[in-house]
Design a protein that fits this description.
The protein has 54 residues and is mainly α. 76% of the residues lie in helices and 0% in strands.
């Protein structure tokens, strides 16, 4: 009976450690975003905004 309890506690601790490690790696991951110069929609939106102002 105690062996099953100990095995269950070990499994819970391992799963908790894996979750903490995975979460900490996710927070340290550096996301990249495409620069605005390469986005064709930005120029179109700026031109349409300039046309609306005049």
């Amino acid at each position: 009976m105690y062996t099953v309890f100990v095995v269950c506690i070990i499994i819970v601790i391992v799963v908790l450690l894996l979750a903490v490690i995975t979460t900490s790696k996710a927070y340290t991951y550096k996301h990249t975003v495409d620069p605005l110069e390469n986005n064709p929609n930005v120029d179109h939106e700026q031109n349409s905004n300039n046309n609306k102002k005049t």
